[in-house]
Amino acid sequence: MYKVKKRIVVSAAHFLTLDYESKCSSVHGHNWVIDVYLKSRTLDQNGMVMDFSHIKKVVKDALDHKLINDVIRVNPTAENIAYWICQQLQPFCYRVDVEESPDNTASYEKDEQQ
Q: Which candidate in 21, 65, 79, 112 is catalytic?
């Protein structure tokens, strides 16, 4: 099994729709640190699972310097962002970690049964 990890830093804003009062309901931004994990039993014709520059392009083009609410059509929590990124990089992506601050990280990991 081949595995790769790509770290991407994205500057973007979002706001959350919550059923309780929170400062996160107002538009605010983060310098998101995103770790993307991919795996494959085989390599492509270039000897890669997926080109690192392609991974970066998919994530940065979609999210960098954007209002994430306009991109992801669900409440853009770190958890939902991680899931969305994983879906964009199928079939190889199996895990995404989204850090919105040094103390706050959410992960999505695909169930092996999926």
A: 65
How many structural domains are present in the chain? 1
Annotated catalytic residue: which of 86, 93, 99, 100? 100
| Residue 102 maps to a domain | yes
Residue 73 maps to a domain: yes
Annotated binding site for Zn(2+): 14, 28, 30
> For the domain that residue 78 is a member of, what is the CATH number?
3.30.479.10
- Residue 86 catalytic? no
Q: Which residues contact 16 (CB under 8 A, 6 or more apart)?
A: 22, 24, 25, 75, 76, 77
pLDDT tens sequence across 19-70: 999 998 999 999 999 999 999 999 999 999 999 999 999 999 999 999 999 9
Residue 52 domain boundaries: 2-109
pTM of the model: 0.93
